[in-house]
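Everyone, carefully examine this protein record:
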Amino acid sequence: ATPRRCQEMASLILNTEWTPAPVAILWSQDSLRLDRNMAAFKSAIAWGHLLARTFFRYDYVTEATLAGRLPAATVLILPDTPCLSAEAAAAIRAWVEKGGVLLGFGAPATRDEAGRPLPAPALADVFGAAVERLRVPGPVTPDRLETTHPEGSYQFGNLPPRPYKFEETLTAVLRPATATPRAWFAGSAKDVAICENRFGAGR
């Protein structure tokens, strides 16, 4: 039965065309080159695992393929992506302005492709917020969101306290400009953790 089924499906499979996924995750080569504690690597892998578990189709894209792949994407995720070139930032900005949805985590685009600090985040206008300072990740309010690792308790079946709780990677306290604050780090109403911003036809 198996060979027969293969023959029946052969024409269908051979004539199937690849379609890009609606969600893209930036696999930032610039950030990974300077990723001494593997924070960027772990964050990018974790978001892939999270989307796979929730049955979202996604693709990893690099800076080299970004401009060509963005038009087919609805959502772009910047995991821990501190380094971003001016060219990549411009491509992302134009895509959001046309209707794309950009999600940034940690302190994205605060350095150029060589790791040099920027005077302001390259996508501050898109996010509608600047980085006030960096701090240790922790719970945010409302909703008791846990920000230390997107996979949380799924890591290797370890019993608490789990290693991911002690990540040293810092995350950003935001200073909203045009963005609307949506969540704050617990314990300080002034430490904005999550913002939402409209930019052109996107956000």
